[in-house]
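Q: How would the structure tokens look for this protein?
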Amino acid sequence: MKLFTRALPAALLLRAFFQWQNYGLRSTALTLQSGAFPPALDGVRIAHLSDLHNADYGYRLPERVRAAAPDLIVVTGDVISRTTRDPAPAIRQLAACAAVAPAFYVPGNHEFRSRHWRRLYKMLWAAGVTVLCDSRASLPLHGGTVTVAGLLDPVFGGFSARKVAALCGGPHFPILLSHRPERLADYAAGGARLVFCGHAHGGQLRLPGVGGLVAPGQGFFPKYTAGVHRLGRTIMVVSRGLGGVTLPPRLFNRPEVVVVQLKSRRAGGALGGKP
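A: Here is the predicted structure in token form.
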């Protein structure tokens, strides 16, 4: 009985710790500085959401987005899981986010495997979220115009640098949304300049000084799990995501809303905040 009495507080603390690790929502601020950004985009703020997997944060997720005061919201896939039957929690939260700023979404691999993807897309459109499936849309921002393009996940077929080039071509600065960070070379070969991705879940388990331990499509000790990455003139922002799988749980890898601010300066470069 004494052993049980002593073990119970420790068990409760451990449960509270993992609850915080897996549902303790945080914001990650990043500043991206590049001479490739048109002067009109200087100061533009972008909220990046990914891999919600129908996790229900209630009012907390829209409040995080509202506090970020974004000019644009990008959602890079897996808003539901392939086993999700009722996407109402995801739709409710994204609708509240879309009331803050224009929101654009590209599907991930879980939507492809879901039997409810057609209904999900209709619900997202009705919620005020623009669905991009190998398509793009123009958006006026700060007196300039950007092209927001959505590249379908490889599971949909036809994933290529040529398709990236087609989506990112045109007179306006392109912002590419794609689910897969491990395809950075394709984004760079296709001429993408600013890319937002998810999928890696931050490596699921993160160790100080090591980073993420495993990610789909990248295996163990993956390279692209969070933060800012560059290849040539291409800058890629990777979100650790908001939801995830039940096992293994997140560890030192709290779910995040990524908030990016663009800085247009000829002494370019990519500066990352704390991932």
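The two ends are 44 Å apart (CA to CA).

The chain is about 25% helix and 30% strand.

Upvote if useful.
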